[in-house]
Amino acid sequence: MIPAEWSNYRRDEDGELLGYLVPRGDGFVPVTVFGYPLAGPSTISDAERVLDSMGLGYLADDWFLDVDGSWFRVRLSEASPELLRVAIVDYGFTGEIGKRFELSVPVDGRLRMDLPS
Prior knowledge:
This protein folds into two domains: 7-56, no CATH class; 59-112. It has one helix and eight strands, in the order βββαβββββ. It is mainly β. The model has no long low-confidence stretch (mean pLDDT 95).
């Protein structure tokens, strides 16, 4: 569940929820609708610019999920402030392609936009 102190950030033209502004120190961190940080702390206007520039495009991107210590490519199948569901699309996965995982929101370190180095 998204914490109450996070501020909704909505697109001006249609009011669509793009993500949240999370207070951190003297700045704000822009995060997705499911709580994944898109950038580090900055001014509120810079954090808003990150959310505006990304829009909801991150919903269509491939992500990576840690499954038992190995990273696999996934696609988001359902994303909301309450729940995130992802499906495996990585042919290196030894289980069933398309297997779904349900993650709590805000997401933890199991999900990443890019592979850890």
